[in-house]
Design goal:
single chain; alpha/beta; Ribosomal Protein L15, Chain: K, domain 2; three-stranded parallel sheet
Length: 95
């Protein structure tokens, strides 16, 4: 019998898996000179690596100032904290 039939095949790799880059609110506080936060500014600041196509903002931490954030997804706690600090969120298409 050939080796490929004798060796067990395990697991599954989904070729349609969507990769998400996660950014917390405490990480956004590092951007001191930026008012509008976009995926491009996150890549330039080094908070997100370029190979990830979608960005999700999570609510870990508290914002120190109002932000205008554009991302593909937001957690409910992140939206509440950003809006409580006087900021705005915008959901980008393609999520």
């Amino acid at each position: 019998m050939p080796l490929t039939r004798r060796v067990p095949k395990r697991g599954f790799t989904n070729i349609f898996k969507q990769e998400w880059a996660v950014v917390n609110i405490r990480d956004l506080n590092q951007l001191t000179d930026v008012q509008d936060v976009t995926p491009e500014t996150l890549i330039q600041a080094g908070l997100v690596h370029g190979q990830k196509s979608k960005i999700k903002v999570l609510g870990e931490g508290t914002p120190t100032r109002p932000f205008y954030i554009k991302a593909h997804r937001f957690s409910a706690s992140a939206i509440a904290k950003i809006q409580a600090a006087g900021g705005r969120v915008e959901v980008l298409g393609g999520a």
